[in-house]
Structure formats: C-alpha cells, structure tokens
Design a protein that fits this description.
The chain is an alpha+beta fold. It has three domains: about 5-290, no CATH class; about 305-415, no CATH class; about 425-485, Arc Repressor Mutant, subunit A (Orthogonal Bundle). The protein is about 40% helix and about 20% strand. Strands 2-6-7-10-1-11-12-13-14 form a nine-stranded mixed sheet. It is elongated, with a radius of gyration of 29 Å. The termini are far apart. The model has no long low-confidence stretch (mean pLDDT about 90).
Length: about 475
C-alpha cells in the first residue's frame, strides 16, 4: 500500500541457460569472445539454415520448473514471434507460445518477517537476440554495431502473475529466484554479463479497486538494486501523474540509473503485435514421464532446505546459515572446509565467521568471488584448528591469514617458519604479567578503585612483551588473580 494507491507489479525474467552450445546450433555460449566469433549459418540467420533443438536446454527449463512446483507440459511446440528485431537478422524470434514447457508455479518469499507466495504463470524456452553496441569506450556512435555472439543462446523466460505490491517484494523474489537457479546450475544468472535480465511491469490503482491500472513496462535494468529503485521511482511517478489529474499511457520506459529516473522509450506493443505462428522448422515433441522423473531426481538440495540443515546439524544462527546458503558456491566451500575439520561441531561457528567476515572482506576488496579464492578450503580448516587447539591466538591468526591470502600459503607452515606459536606456558606468562603490573601503577590503581576496564591496558602491555603470542585467556586469568590479591 502506498498512500491512496497500491502498486501492482509483474516480472518477466530472462535467464540464459547454462549450456556449452546454443539452443539451435553448436556454437559456443562462452562469454567474452571477440564480436561475431561464436556464430554460424544458423545463429546468423542464413537462408535455408535449419535449427536443431539442444536437449540440454530443454532439461534445464524442466529442472527449473520442477524446483518451483510447475506443471510440466509433456506436449510442447515452438512458435515464431514476429516484429522488428534489429538484433535478430531473420527478424523473428523462435520461442514458445501455447503451451509453454512449464505452467503455474509458485515461489514463497519473506518480506519484513512475513511469508507471501508469488504465483508464476509460465516458464518457456526461447532463443536470445544479439547485442547492439551504440558506443565504443567513452565514444558514442551515430550508428550501431551488431554482435551476434549472444544470438541463439538458450533463454528461459519466467513470467509472474501481477501479485507483487512493493519494490521490496520484487527484490526478494528475484534474490530468491536467482539463488534457486544458481543451485540448480541451470543458469549462471550473472547480471553483469547479461545472463539474467528483467522487464518490470508496473501499474497503480486506488486501494480497494479490483481493476488494474495502466501498465508501464521498464527495460534496461542491469542490477537487482536497480530494479528495486526503478520500481520505487515509477510507482511514485504514476501516483503523481494521477494525483495531478493527468492520465497514464501504456508504454515502455528505460531506467536511467545515473539520473535515478525512468524515461519514455516507445509505446508498448501487445500480444497481437507479435503475430505468433507455429515454427515450421521444429516439429512438436512429447516428453516421456521417465524423462521428467529422471530430471526430478537430479534436483539438488535447495537453499531453504540447506539453511535449515546448517542450523540443525552445525548449530549455526539464522544469520550465519542465511549468509552461507545464499549462493551454492559459498555453501559448498563451507561444507568442504568443514569436512577437513577434526571437530565439525566446534569448528562450525568459527569457520562460518571467518568466511562471512575476514574472507568476504578480502573478496570485496579484491573484487573476486569465492570460486577464485586463494585460500583453499583445507587451509582455512587448518587455520581454524590452530585457533581451537590454542596453537595460535585470534590476533596471530589474522597475521597468518594475510600470508594465506597473499601467497596461498599453508597456515601450519607459516606458523612454524615465522615462530608464531602461541605462548601457553603459565610460568612464562606469570613473569610477563608481574613485569607489566610493576610498570603500570596508574592502571593498577584505577583497577583497584573499581574501574575494572583498566585491566585492558595491562593486558596490552603483556601482549606487547610477548609480541602478541601470549595466550590471551591465560593472560586475563593470571592478571585478574594477581590484581585481586
């Protein structure tokens, strides 16, 4: 609810299917090649070239549908969707009209502590278009260049019912969807590489009215936060137009992230403008029950199930389990590291903390992901073991970790070569504590007058004398005993 109006939001999510070759030819789908290198007579639309369906693309769509509770339509066909495509030379897109591969799914999301189930109309399989380049570097062109490397890569398009009512709900839906699809491995969902794109349909209507308002589509959004911001802006824009007595038109708008506004692009076409008709070069196909059931058995443990298991088996908090299972690669890294631990239950919380804080901070600074981590799962598990068995302190562990990250070093070797083993000899620590007390008369007096925090200065002096290697728990214990007596 927003003032006297409520927002009605629907999403059309396009995700590139994670296959090695395109959906109707054998060209590579690898990202980053020189323009027009990954092409052939089929994806460049040469006359007489006949498409051949990629079985793996069909499997990916069905797996995604099964994970989201869809009905799988065993009898399926392809269609031509025809209107002017400047980035598809044949000037039509091979897609699915009716029926799609997957019908009527659902995805529960949680916003502000409350669960809401979003119904999903369909997932269908289609080919991606090419890419138009309007500028090179900082130089804008007065013409466009066409790169067909992306043309013909398999896409699954997921269309929700218009049941989302806020930017936050749309953001959570896309986050949850992205996580599930990444777990399945059916799409990499990299928005930076254009492998996940979203068109947003937004309208507003007076609270209590059942009829929908005029629908506006927003395109050209390349991040989840951008989608949230674009919806928030567009809802307010539409409310302002209506409150001022104006009228809205059905149109397509672009999101200008730098200005933080949407701008009109063109009038919005309707379904009749697409002029669907059956694709004559691809025959209808029928999926056996055994084929679908085989794919159902291949579905891995989903994020919410994995999160619940992490909390139950490893004693993790809701926050830690949520972070670790937010992406499959992080969850896999955590569990592999845990498999090297001598005591899984003791290591679980500490390992989670190091991944979410120290390691994650390094990734953010270096702008890399966990799959590129210079710290192996086994080495991180070794570091945790060195902390737990008292070989090194937390402070020393951070020094060792720096070496591990910079040089992919084995922590046990770093500790041995640099003589960083923690001092736990009570008599040696006793002597340093006595020296520190005799040199800290002011702190001692403050402690005895009731200011117990003053012990921190004496602890710091002991750690300095030991070059950071004294066991901090033992230092605190001995100082507390001596100062109280």
């Amino acid at each position: 609810m927003m003032g006297d109006y409520e927002a009605i939001i629907g999403l059309e999510v396009h995700m590139q299917i994670n296959t090695k070759s395109k959906v109707f030819c054998e060209c590579s789908t690898q990202f980053g090649f020189e323009p027009n290198l990954n092409t052939c007579v089929i994806c460049t639309s040469q006359p007489g070239a006949i498409p051949i369906l990629n079985k793996k693309a069909v499997e990916a769509v069905i797996k995604t549908g099964l994970a989201l509770g869809f009905t799988i339509n065993k009898e399926s066909t392809f269609a031509r969707k025809q209107y002017f495509y400047p980035d598809i030379p044949k000037n039509y897109q091979i897609t699915q009209s009716e029926p799609p591969l997957c019908s009527k799914g659902r995805l529960p999301i949680i916003v502000k502590g409350k669960e809401k189930v979003i119904n999903i109309t369909r997932i269908h399989l289609e080919e991606d278009a090419g890419k138009l380049l309007h500028e090179i570097g900082s130089r804008k062109l007065d013409y466009s260049l066409l790169d067909l490397n992306r043309a013909g890569i398999g896409l699954m398009e997921l269309v929700t019912e218009p049941e989302l009512n806020s930017p936050e709900e749309a953001f959570e839906f896309l986050n949850e969807l992205k996580s599930i699809v990444e777990y399945l491995g059916t799409s990499e969902c990299s928005m930076e590489e254009g492998k996940m794109r979203c068109d947003v349909n937004v309208s507003v209507r007076p609270v209590g009215r059942k009829e929908y308002g005029v629908r506006v589509e927003i395109k050209n959004i390349n991040s989840l936060s951008g989608i949230r911001d674009a919806i928030a802006y567009e809802v307010e824009r539409q409310k302002e137009v209506l409150n001022s007595g104006g009228g809205l038109i059905q149109e397509t708008r672009l999101w200008e992230s730098e200005e933080g506004i949407t701008k009109s692009m063109r009038s919005k076409e309707g379904a009749l403008d697409y002029r669907y008709f059956p694709e004559p070069d691809l025959v209808p196909f029928n999926l056996p029950d055994s084929f679908i059931e085989k794919l159902r058995k291949e579905i891995p443990e989903m994020p919410k199930v994995r999160k619940a298991r992490f909390m139950k088996d490893y004693g993790l908090t809701d926050y830690d389990a949520s972070y670790l299972t937010s992406t499959k690669v992080v969850a896999d890294y955590y569990e592999e590291a845990l498999s090297y631990s001598k005591d899984k239950r003791a290591s679980a919380k500490l390992l989670a903390n190091w991944i979410s804080t120290e390691l994650n901070a390094k990734f953010n600074a270096s702008k890399i992901s966990i799959v590129e981590s210079p710290v192996s799962c086994q080495n991180l598990a070794k570091l945790i073991s060195l902390i737990l068995d008292g070989t090194i302190s937390w402070k020393i562990a951070k020094t060792v970790f720096e070496e591990m990250y910079e040089k992919s070093a084995d922590p046990e070797r770093v500790v041995k070569e640099k003589g960083l083993v923690q001092i736990s000899d009570e008599s040696a620590i006793m002597k340093m504590c006595e020296e520190a007390i005799s040199e800290s008369s002011k702190a001692v007096a403050e402690f005895k007058s009731g200011k117990e925090k003053a012990i921190g200065a004496i602890v710091g002096l002991v750690m300095k004398k030991s070059k950071g290697q004294a066991n901090p728990q033992l230092v605190n214990k001995i100082l507390a005993e001596k100062l109280k007596t």
